[in-house]
Amino acid sequence: MIEILLLLLVILMVGLYRKTSTRVAALEKELEAIKVGLLSTQPVSTAAPVAAPATVPAAAAVIATEAVTEEPAVRAEPVPQAEPVAAEALPEETIAASVAAEDVAAREEAPAPVATTTRTPTPAKPKNRENLESYLGARWPVWVGGVALAFGGIFLVRASIEAGLLGPGARLVLACLFGLVLMAGGEIVRRRAMPQVSDRFSNAMIPGALTAAGAVTLLGAIYAAYGVYEFIGATPAFILLALVSFATIGLSLLHGQALAGLGLLASLLTPALVASEQPNANALFIFLGLTWVAVNAASRFRRWTIVPMLANIGIGLWAIAYTFGANDFDPMPPTLTLIVMIAGTGFFWPGAVYGTDRVAKSGWSGLLGRQPLTITLSVAIMSALPALAMLVADSVTGVDPYFASAAVIAALAALGASRAYTVWPAMIAAGGAVLNLFVVALLLLDTYVPQPVGNEPLPVVTYATEVGVSLLLGAVFTLLGFAFLKRFRKTEPEFSMVWSVLMSGVPVALATISFLNFGNLGHDWTHGLYGLGLGLVLLAGAEWLFRERDETSEGRIDWAANLVVAGSFAGFTLALHALTNGIVTTILVSVLGFAYVLGMRARPWPALPWMMAAAILIVFGRIAWEPTLIGQNSLGTTPFFNALLPGYGIPTLLAIVTAYLLKDSSDFRIRNLMQALASLASLMTVAVLVRHAMNGGVLDDRVPTLGEQSIYTLLTVGFSGILMTLDFKRPSPVFRWGSMIAGVLATANALSLHVFGLNPYFSGENTGAWPFFNLLLLGYLLPGLAYALVAYYARGRRPMPYVIMLALAGAVLGFLWATLSVRRFWQGENIADWKGFMAAETYTYSVVWLLIGVALLAIGSKLDAKSLRLASAGLVLVAVVKVFLVDMSNLEGILRALSFIGLGAVLIGIGLFYQRILVNKSGEPAAVDSQEPVS
What we know:
Shape: elongated
Number of strands: 0
């Protein structure tokens, strides 16, 4: 009873305040009329004070005059001040009116000057910070009071039950009356509230708190009548709860966003609270759709964004809950409701009003953060998730869940193409489309195919629905992309790039997944013609986009149009993979890329040559997947003239021709890229043909022999020299760095495989029957000479450390050839380490090493090659160590003496050679070339 008395007291106080608030409202209207009259009848430059009308109190007239006074910079003369009036001499109503007028004048902006064209900017009004008293006195009691009133209504019903004073029906009637009284009290207080209070305490308004408490009381009473006492059935309870919820949403237009959230929560909980023995999915989602429309209509009017976000989340969660919880799942009701949510978002939040910060926030960051971000993100996520959930449910109707899911994704994509701020719906729709089809493919992998009975043929499983829906959804993205580019291409460059990718990437991705899972991998006309049509449409679209370019955009890259060109290439590539296979596909992909290069003669589109680079990369991918291109069993054993020659050779030849055609291109990036790809393709083609020839027509992962590896080393070194020559004729960073990278790779292979891994001394590989033309010639002497030639060619043209590296690599290989040849001379064809050493063999090593050292010294001096002279010194040092450590202990008799005599003679000769050089440096005539610098 105390709560009822307090409520009546509050209503009484509001009624007593009615008279004063009426007078304040009348005074505000009169002040507004005075201001309008002053501005229309008196020039701004006039300095005479304005007399107040007789109907307005003197104090109010003074305040009104001060409110419209000019700024000091434009006054003609000082405005006379009105005589002060004692507060005691004014009646009570006049004082109240004066206070109200001060508040109004403080909130109103001063009128702009009329006598001058310059306008002094009005400083921004500082935001008043609320103190502790404001929070404790104006906000906290309202919040807590609203909650207390709601609990009061509940406790009132409970107390009456415990006391047994009234029956259930009477208690529910009283609870409903109490809720209605609270809502009526909220409306009365709202109408009598002062404008200053509404502006300052917008989120702590007493009317909103009273209305919310009343709504909660009504909802509780209706639910108790249904769920506790069973006075009403499920349908009346549902209708009553819905009416109260909608009424709460409607009243939120007057009381704020918090009340709208309460009404939304009540509406979303109503279907869960009111259970039925025969649930109706159509009624459920119609009610949820109407709730969403009501909430968004109210939010659009008041420009709220939090409540619409919550509404989107609620609809999405209900759709997911129905999908997993319904015994008889029907995909149509949630699908239609989700489409209503998506379409309604575009209707209630027009692009002309929202997303207007795209000018201030340009670039990608501004695009991704455009308002209303909370609404667009929530509607996108809560549409994609239910669409994905539908795929795992079994429909009891004739509607395929994948079709329903695709319809939701298509609607979301349409929203993404209709507004300039819906980049997230567009991208999430694209990701959802690809993910949904991927999930469908995974689910169908577990489909059980019945085995034939007797002589019956195997059953044929078709996926016409999956294929048709996937291809149709991809076409929708393409059409939406063109629609977006037509509207927003010039004003939204970043978003146009997004749609240029989606309009081709999504249909190609969907068609590829569909082809790989549901199509005929050998020859599929459906997917092939789809890719062909997609490529033609996008190519025509690129023509349209390039023709419609703005004249002011000359000199800038039209990314949207160029990306559409790339999309057309992707469509044609899909068609080739669907209609052809094996080596034919590999060759035709490179031919397709070259066709785009030839198209540069008709259309100067920047993207055309890049399609050839993309084609070569696709060829590399196919080679990595299947190096034989036609299968190991179908590959012939004929060296060089087999399927590898056209499969590798034609793409390589086209890449070389393209690099030549682009040699004068102004775009250095594609020029350098094509040079690199052509060089790499050439080396790979020769290498694979050599491997095929040297392995009996077999391409597998077996370890290559020394002869095969020698071919690769020769190819790599020669490739380095070719790139160096090309760089000298037409300087290019690709040729320059490519030549050095090839040289480094060749040197690494030589020092690791030739010296250790594939060395016949360690591996035991037979060197061959012929004395000179054997494995040692191919494995060591020829690569060593190749290194020497490239090092000589690179002198003065490449960094000195690189030249020294090549020269030393050649010297090492030459040294190994000589050393292993000596062992072969004494040991025969097999020079494996298990055979040991003979005395004559050991002596021969010393002689050969010293001869090589002397030869290197002579050549290094003649060519002024410091690297060769250093190699000579190192080799002589090795011979000295070998003679003193090995020969002294292992040789006997005449061989030991000859070893030391030979070493001494060589060392004395080298000393005499250097002495003559040193004398020549001092100015004496020399027998050797006087131009040789001495290191």
